[in-house]
Amino acid sequence: MLHATVRAGQSPVETAALQPLLSVDKVTLRYKTPSLLVTATESVSFDVRQSDRFVLLGPSGCGKSTLLKAVGGYMKPVAGTISINGRQVTKPGPDRMMVFQEFDQLMPWKTVLQNVMFPLLVARKLPEKIAEEIARSYIEKVKLTRAVDSFPHTLSGGMKQRVAIARGMAMQPDILLMDEPFAALDALTRRQMQDELLQLWDDTKFTVIFVTHSIAEAIKISNRILLLSPHPGRVKAEVVNADAASTEDGSATALEKDIHDLLFSEPGHRE
Ligand SMILES: Nc1ncnc2c1ncn2[C@@H]1O[C@H](COP(=O)(O)OP(=O)(O)OP(=O)(O)O)[C@@H](O)[C@H]1O
Questions:
Q1: Is residue 84 in contact with ligand 1, taking CB distance under 6 Å?
Q2: Do 133 and 157 belong to one domain?
Q3: What's the mean pLDDT in 199-220?
Q4: Residue nearest atom 30 in ligand 1 by C-alpha distance
Q5: Quick one: 31 and 87 in the same domain?
Q6: What is the ipTM of this complex?
C-alpha cells in the first residue's frame, strides 16, 4: 500500500485550483567547464504554490542545489523556463532569499541584529529604524532575542542557522530557498530546528523550497516532495505528503519505505 498520494512522471498534475507561485517548466541545467559539460538536471518540471513546504529530494549529485540556484536566479537554464508570479526569473532578487548549509554565511564583523538588518537596508532600502524593528521581530521569532548583540563566532551552529533563517524571513520573500540548512548540525539540534521551522511556518505560512537528501527530513518538513532521479536529475515522482504532521508514528516509516522504493526503483517497475 502506498502511504501518500504519488504522481509519477515528468509533469505533476495540479490538484488544487490555486495558481502556482513558482513554475519550473522543462528546465535543463548544465555546467560548462573548460574540459567538460555536466548536465545537472534534465527537463525538470514542477510548480510551487503559496504556503507550500516543497521539498526537493534525491541522491547526492542529482542536481538539487543546482535547481535551487536556478530558482534563485544565479544560473540560467539551457532549456526551459522558471517563472515566479508569472514573471520569468532572469536574475537574483529579494523575492527569493537563500539559506545555505554553511555556518559561515553570516558576516563575522556584524552582530546578529546587524546581519539580519543588512539586506533590509541594502536590498529593501528601508530606513534604519524600520529595518531594526523588523529584524528584531524575526530574531524574536527564531528565539535569539538574548543573542541580538552577539557576533557570529560566539554562536553555536544551530544559532547561526537561526540567524540565517531570520535574515531570510525578515525580507518577507515570496519564497524562502533552503539548501540543506540543517545538514551540518548534530542529530538533536537538527530535529529541534526542524520543529522550530514548522512552528515558524504555523505562525507565518511562508512558502519554502527545502533541499535535502534525507527521506526522514523530507517527510517531516514537507507538504509536497519532488523525487529526483540520480545524475542527471529528472523528475521521478511527486509525493503529496498529507500526513506531514504524523511523522512520529508508523505511517511515516511506511511512507519512508515507499519513497525509498520510488527513488531507487528502475523506471517502469512501479505504477
Ligand atoms: N560548479 C560546478 N561545475 C561543474 N559541475 C558542477 C558544479 N556544481 C555542481 N556540479 C555538478 O552538477 C551535478 C549536480 O550537482 P548538485 O550540487 O546540484 O547536486 P545535489 O543533488 O545538490 O548534490 P548534494 O546532495 O551532494 O549536494 C553534479 O554532477 C555536480 O558534480
A1: no
A2: yes
A3: 94
A4: 61
A5: yes
A6: 0.97
Can you give the residue range of the structural domain that contains 122? 105-172
CA 58 to ligand 1: nearest atom = 21
Residue 124 lies in a domain: yes
Instruction: Answer yes or no: is the C-beta of 88 below 6 A from any ligand 1 atom.
Output: no
Atom of ligand 1 nearest to the CA of 211: 22
Looking at the predicted structure, is the pLDDT value of residue 4 above 90?
Answer: no
In a domain, 1, yes or no: yes
Task: For a ligand 1 pocket test, name from 37, 39, 42, 64 the mutation site with the most ligand atoms within 8 angstroms of its C-beta.
Answer: 64
Instruction: Give the dihedral sign, CA 8/11/12/13.
Output: negative
- Residue 229, ligand 1, Cβ within 6 A: no
Domain at 245, CATH number: 3.40.50.300
CA of 75 to the centre of ligand 1 (A): 13
CB 35 less than 6 A from any atom of ligand 1: no
d(CA 215, CA 227): 10
Residue 270 in domain: no
Query: Which of the pair, 246 or 23, is modelled with greater confidence?
Result: 23
CA distances from 53 to 20, 77, 94 (A): 13, 23, 19
pTM over the 0.80 mark: yes
Give the pLDDT band of residue 270 (cuts 50, 70, 90): very low
- C-alpha cell at position 70: 536556478
Distance CA 214, CA 247 (A): 14
Per-residue pLDDT of 183-198, as tens digits, reads 999 999 999 999 999 9
The total number of structural domains in the chain stands at: 2
Tell whether ligand 1 has an atom less than 6 A from the beta carbon of residue 61: yes
What's the pLDDT at 236? 93
- 3-class SS string, 151-210: CHHHCCHHHHHHHHHHHHHHCCCCEEEEECCCCCCCHHHHHHHHHHHHHHHHHHCCCEEE
| Together in a domain, 144 and 209 | no
Percent of the chain with pLDDT over 70: 88
Q: Could you tell me if 180 and 245 lie in one domain?
A: yes
40 and 85 in one domain? Answer: yes
Nearest CA to ligand 1 atom 1: 31
